[in-house]
Design a protein that fits this description.
The chain is of the alpha/beta class. Among the domains are: 155 residues, Rossmann fold; 59 residues, Probable gtpase engc, domain 3 (Ribonucleotide Reductase Protein R1, domain 1). Helices cover 29% and strands 21% of the residues. The strands form four sheets. It has a six-stranded mixed sheet with strand order 13-12-11-14-16-15, sandwiched between helices. It has a five-stranded mixed barrel with strand order 3-4-5-8-7. A hairpin with a 2-residue loop joins β4 and β5. α5 packs across α11. The N terminus is likely disordered. It binds guanosine-5'-diphosphate (GDP) and zinc ion. Guanosine-5'-diphosphate binds next to α8.
């Protein structure tokens, strides 16, 4: 695979007959910013590596992993210019829309305030991209008209982000669940079901591995008899810099803050069933209720109605909320035990002061982590969750 020969901004795709083809869309204009690397190579995979890393020499890969935080910042700066230029070009070429929902072979695409039912140009497959699906929910696509309320997806525009998981059938490939999401909103409830911080931690790890900003909403605070206990439970997440909303779909508490945070963003919504996700969305915007039951009518009676993974729901003031079964099942898949500490900076910062470099923070003398647990500097729940997830990673 000669990757350096790839045209800029144009993921190579192959027709099923094996003949090489390039997605039709090609940017005409050059980006105003100096090009430093190919955005596609650096879209982070679910396992934290990027495609560039996968084709790099071993030493280079480990060097990059070490400076990952640094290179991610640089990467975002480059991406912006590249993507802006590509989108500008696409706007010239054809209508650009957003994929709202995907069934087995059809796509619902929002374009100019309308929703078109689209097919994908030709027999394209995403083989070389490392993903099993070429177009996913959230993708920006350029489309041509194919009659009333119908269109054809001609190209998929570069992604800002990709929430991906291992493909259930082709384990070496990844499936994009949501493209271009900005943030992950985890909804939990204080009671009924009770707040489960291990799950919150797993979502947080999943969000960071997929480079999504993280937000936590604790719903049903109307059921809390001890407000201080609620504040204490969410304190670690606030101290890590993540927005936390204490809310009640019942009383309306916290909803305006939450609504403001969703505006203009593409937000992936996750959480256990029964925590009040539908109730919250309905309270924020009445027609936003999560889609349930009969969905066949908006597919115009076409295709198979087994929609996959996710649906974009449009917010009145701009932005989308994505209804998805969530990422908790694969949030830590493929993570090495030694990597886990990276997601616990609250513990890692203290662990540096342990007497022994290989301290496991369980029984050793001079353990700074155990001391910090006693003084409350490290939240017991966070430490407990770390141990639980670590044990699971070590058992694989
Ligand atoms: P979902 O499965 O996450 O979408 O949860 P639902 O929105 O279906 O809510 C599950 C149950 O919790 C329903 O019986 C709701 O009436 C209830 N519920 C939702 N939000 C609240 C809340 O803020 N306070 C209380 N007390 N109950 C709520
Ligand atoms: Zn220690």
């Amino acid at each position: 695979m000669s990757h350096s020969a790839s045209p800029k901004l144009t993921p190579r795709v192959y027709r099923d007959d094996g003949a090489r083809d390039i997605q039709r869309f090609k940017p005409k204009r050059k980006s105003k910013r100096p090009r430093q690397n190919d955005w596609w190579d650096d879209v982070e995979a679910w396992d934290g590596t990027s495609r560039r890393e996968q084709i790099m020499a071993k030493g280079e890969r480990s060097r990059r992993l070490k400076t990952q935080a640094e290179s991610q910042t640089a990467l975002e700066a480059v991406d912006e210019g590249e993507i802006a230029a590509a989108w500008e070009d696409a706007q010239d070429a054809a209508a650009v829309g957003t994929v709202l929902e995907v069934s087995s072979s059809l796509y619902r695409v929002a374009v100019d305030g309308r929703v078109l039912l689209c097919s994908l140009r030709g027999a394209l497959s995403a083989r070389e991209t490392g993903y099993t699906n070429l177009a996913a929910v959230g993708d920006r696509v350029s489309i041509s008209s194919a009659g009333d309320h119908q269109g054809v997806i001609e190209a998929v525009l570069p992604r800002r982000s990709a929430l991906a998981r291992p493909d259930p059938f082709f384990r070496h490939l990844k499936q994009v669940i949501v493209a271009n999401a900005d943030q992950l909103l985890v909804v939990a409830s204080w009671l009924d079901p009770p707040l489960w911080t291990e799950l919150v931690d797993r979502y947080l790890i999943g969000a960071e591995r997929n480079r999504l900003a993280f937000m936590l909403c604790v719903n049903k605070v109307d059921l809390a008899t001890d407000r201080a206990a609620v504040q204490e439970a969410v304190r670690p997440y606030r101290e890590l810099g993540h927005p936390v909303f204490l809310a009640s779909a019942l009383t309306g508490e916290g909803l305006s803050d939450l609504r403001a945070r969703l505006q203009g963003q593409t937000t992936v919504l996750s959480g256990l069933s029964g925590v009040g996700k539908s109730s919250l969305l309905t309270a924020i915007q009445p027609d936003l209720a999560l889609r349930t039951g009969d969905v066949s009518q908006h597919w115009g009676g076409q295709g198979q109605h087994t929609t996959s993974q996710a649906t974009l729901l449009a917010l009145d003031g701009g932005g989308y909320v994505v209804d998805t079964p969530g990422i908790r099942d694969f949030a830590v898949v493929g993570l090495q035990p030694a990597e886990l500490m990276r997601f616990y900076p609250d513990i890692a910062g203290v662990a540096e002061r342990c007497r022994f470099a290989d301290c496991t923070h369980t029984h050793e003398p001079g353990c700074a982590v155990k001391r910090a647990l006693q003084t409350g500097q490290i939240a017991i729940a966070r430490y407990h969750n770390y141990r639980l997830i670590l044990a699971e990673l070590e058992s694989h």
